[in-house]
Write a structure and sequence with these properties.
Rossmann fold; about 375 residues; rod-shaped
Length: about 375
């Protein structure tokens, strides 16, 4: 703190004698500005440093003191500046009006120097305390926001690390996670104004679903390599083992919920996606054989995103298909494998899918 700093006080009074008398009472402890009218006072509020306190006479030559006060407060930069009204008459009604309007205090002239000095010192001290608290609140808000960002970044990094652990066993790179997340988000945003999906696809819900999307195959950590990486067709027993990755994924999310003692919207979406993204619209999917709208929307979106990416990607058991071929196969699955409205949305934004696939293309 600058020990030589002097607070600036603006004295507004139509009487030159009163102005000079008040200046003598306050000088040299404070920097004192003098104004003889409301207009002059308003002009003097602008130069830096702005006055820390205003002593305002209720009787001015160009405007009523109340009107001058309202003009002063209309400038948001002066909205918190304390104003002490000065009056010649001990009019309780006038004083109540001033205090109700937001004045810090009202003092009746003539006043003793000690009284004025004490009032001024008290209100400046109060104003400094308020400023300090506001600064502390702002700093606290900043710290909370920073910690929140750090926590979210850590959560996102943990999610990707967990998902990558499963994906790297059968995918050459982790771009599959990024692509499917972007496909998922593009579909959800395209559908958010469809009356059928409006209740479920708020911006906040889409953000949480998209954050959960990379966890869709986390249950594959429990599938043996001999099955996960098998280049040929799976036997019925092997396919049954493969199908269990949806249950393993659901159970992993459920374990987190048990540890926390509660669920969250993010965990709910993660559980839906991991457990149900292999369900089919016609009820022929797994693990539950859910049909139509009984399949959670997050899982239906994931199904389209995941299958499209599987089709355009090279795997040990298949070559990569072209965008056009993948699009046609998904179109053929409309109303059987996939929710028809989600397929229609994909067809409308197919160029976004193509662009995402090109930007995050796997290495050959």
């Amino acid at each position: 703190m600058d020990l030589n700093f002097k607070a600036t006080i603006l004295v507004v009074d139509s009487s030159s004698d009163n102005r000079m008398l008040i200046k003598e009472m306050l000088h040299p402890r404070y920097e004192v500005r003098l104004a003889a009218s409301g207009a002059e006072a308003l002009a003097m509020m602008q130069p830096a440093p702005r006055p820390a306190l205003v002593l305002l006479d209720l009787t001015l030559p160009d405007m009523d003191g109340h009107a001058a006060f309202q003009e002063l407060r209309s400038d948001f930069l002066n909205a918190d500046t304390p104003v002490i009204f000065m009056t010649l008459a001990d009019d309780s009604a006038d004083q109540r009006r001033a205090l109700r309007a937001g004045a810090a205090d009202v003092i009746v002239k003539p006043f003793m120097p000690e009284v004025l000095q004490a009032r001024v010192a008290a209100y400046l001290q109060l104003q400094r305390a308020r400023t300090l608290l506001k600064d502390q609140d702002s700093h606290l808000d900043y710290l909370v926001a920073q910690r929140t960002r750090e926590a979210v970044q850590m959560q996102d990094a943990t999610i990707i690390a967990m998902a990558t652990l499963a994906e790297t066993r059968d995918h050459a790179t982790s771009f599959h996670l990024r692509r499917t997340q972007l496909f998922f988000t593009a579909l959800a945003r395209e559908l958010r104004f469809n009356p059928r999906f409006v209740p479920e696809l708020s911006d906040a819900a889409i953000a949480l679903m998209a954050k959960a999307a990379p966890l869709h195959d986390i249950g594959k950590v429990g599938v043996p390599d001999a099955i996960l990486l098998k280049p040929g067709h799976l036997t019925p027993d092997e396919f049954e083992t493969m199908q269990r990755h949806t249950i393993e994924g659901r159970d992993a999310i459920a374990g987190v919920e048990r540890t926390l003692g509660a669920s969250t919207p993010f965990l709910r979406y993660a559980g839906e996606i991991t457990y149900s993204h292999h369900e089919r619209w016609d009820g022929s999917g797994y693990p539950q054989g859910l049909k139509g709208d009984a399949i959670p929307l997050s899982a239906r979106l994931m199904a389209v995103a995941d299958v499209y990416d599987a089709l355009i990607s090279k795997r040990v058991y298949k070559p990569a298909f072209t965008h056009e071929t993948a699009l046609e196969l998904i179109r053929q699955g409309r109303g059987e494998h996939f929710d028809p409205d989600i397929v229609d949305a994909m067809l409308l934004i197919e160029e976004k899918f193509r662009a995402i696939a090109a930007e995050f293309r796997d290495a050959d």
